[in-house]
Specification:
The protein is an alpha+beta fold and about 425 residues long. The chain is about 25% helix and about 30% strand. It has helices at about 20-35, 35-60, 215-225, 260-275, 300-310, 320-325, 330, 345-355, 380-385; strands spanning about 1-5, 10-15, 65-70, 75, 80-90, 95-100, 110-115, 120-130, 135-140, 140-145, 150-160, 160-165, 170-175, 190-195, 200-205, 225-230, 240-245, 250-255, 255, 280-285, 290-295, 335-340, 360-365, 390-395, 400-405.
């Protein structure tokens, strides 16, 4: 993608006002003394001022600049790369040219100072690391041209901007184990079927009426008897992951904050369930925005969730317990729900208990805010939650997350682009 500066009349600014004062003094001296030297100095200085002004204006008007970005998406830790191309249609050389960039991406700047010959061309690349998830603008940039004497500068704004989405890392939790027994559909079914599903259940002896294509020939030859494949019934329940975005209960700063840990936990759960062929969805409510992604399977669903996680911010004002209570009609019945919150308020555990009475299978993951900052700890909710039949797992600051890197075969963000493939091997 590229954008071009096309402002027709750049603003020319005098950088050294003292030159005007000096020119005025020479005019007064020349008129009073009628000295030829004074007149000669006045004309010379006036010529330099006019030449510098015209040089600056003409050189800047003949400039075009293009900004190319290789991709409009990245994940945390990726390298962002842009290519700039500067062209001059003027015959005048530009001895001083500055590009001042105002990109929003933290730590990324494309500012540069170069020179350019008459009708010249200059290309350069800038690189920076995508350190934080979010939606960022690359640009705008100001292009400043100066004359050889440094008297004037002409500035034009490259107002167009590129937009890049930085996705959170696809994380894998090692210190936190979500109890599989409390998730509907997380374990194999004890019922067998001849219908083909994604879960192979075992082998049994061939019986009259069994389809021949169900015979497992390698094992049958080895055991010298016909054996057919059986399959487990596929779990049909879905998993919802709910994230608390209430600003009042968050703690910590930057990457070491309850907000970022919550995002990593959601990313990990989404990756785990997509990897296992399960349906997973997202529920969160920020400031005036509700994020609802219905549970589905597949990599496309994983990138939908990551796309929402890229822009969520813990600026909500509604307590998590109220968010969970209001989500009951959305969740339906017979689904699993993992609720993630740093809140020490027991009301969100109460909401999970009420959801359990509506045939929702809840799990609570408490991010211990006290380990991030001087904030109330929610570890005291564990006993009450488990008494009410809600499994409770605690995550503290310093929990280990590893990152799964997607391959670079396409972009997940823009409509019509292919999504990158992700290795779904077990860690």
């Amino acid at each position: 993608m590229s954008v071009t500066a096309s402002q027709p009349k750049p603003a020319v600014t005098l950088q050294r006002p003292v030159i005007i004062v000096l020119l005025g003094l020479l005019v007064v001296v020349a008129l009073v003394t009628t000295s030829p030297i004074a007149y000669w100095l006045m004309y010379a200085l006036l010529s330099i001022v006019l030449l510098s002004y015209l040089w600056t204006r003409l050189a800047s008007r003949g400039l075009t600049i293009q900004r190319h970005i290789r991709t409009q998406w990245a994940t945390v830790g990726d390298t962002i790369e842009e290519e700039f191309e500067l062209r001059s249609r003027s015959r005048l050389p530009i001895l001083m040219l500055e590009v001042e960039d105002y990109s929003e991406l933290p730590g990324y700047r494309a500012s540069i100072a170069v020179s350019l010959g008459g009708r010249g061309k200059r290309r350069w690349r800038t690189r920076g690391e995508a350190g934080r998830r979010g939606l960022y603008k690359l640009g705008p940039a100001d292009v400043t041209v100066g004359d050889p004497f440094g008297l004037f500068t002409a500035e034009r704004r490259l107002a167009q901007e590129n937009t890049i989405v930085v996705y959170p890392p696809i994380s894998v939790m090692h210190d936190v184990a979500v109890p599989a027994g409390t998730l509907v559909g997380a374990a194999r079914s004890s019922m067998r079927t001849q219908q083909v599903t994604t879960d192979a259940g075992g082998l049994r002896e061939f019986q009259p009426g069994d389809p021949l294509k169900r015979i497992h020939w390698p094992t049958s030859v080895r055991r010298e008897t016909l054996l057919v494949k059986e399959f487990d019934l596929e779990p049909t329940a879905s998993l919802w992951v709910a994230l608390d975005l209430d600003a009042a209960v968050q703690a910590g700063h930057g990457d070491e904050s309850t907000e970022e840990y919550g995002v990593k936990i959601v990313s990990s759960l989404a990756y785990q369930f997509v990897r296992d062929g399960k349906s997973v969805g997202l529920l969160a409510e920020g400031r005036g925005t509700r994020y609802i992604i219905e549970p589905q399977r597949g990599l496309r669903q994983l990138w939908r969730i990551l796309e929402s996680l890229a822009i969520v911010q813990a600026r909500g004002t509604q307590p998590f317990g109220d968010v969970l209570a209001s989500a009951a009609p959305i969740l339906g019945r017979g689904v699993s729900l993992v609720a993630i919150s740093p809140s020490a308020d027991p009301s969100w555990i109460g909401s999970l208990t009420h959801l359990a009475q509506r045939a929702v299978y809840p799990i609570a993951i408490g991010v211990d805010a006290a380990t991030f900052d001087e904030a109330p700890s929610n570890t005291g909710l564990k006993e009450g939650a488990e008494t009410a039949g809600v499994s409770f797992t605690t995550v503290s600051q310093g929990a280990t997350f590893s990152t799964v890197q997607p391959s670079r075969h396409g972009g997940p963000a823009a409509e019509g682009q292919r999504r990158p493939t992700v290795s779904l091997a077990y860690q």
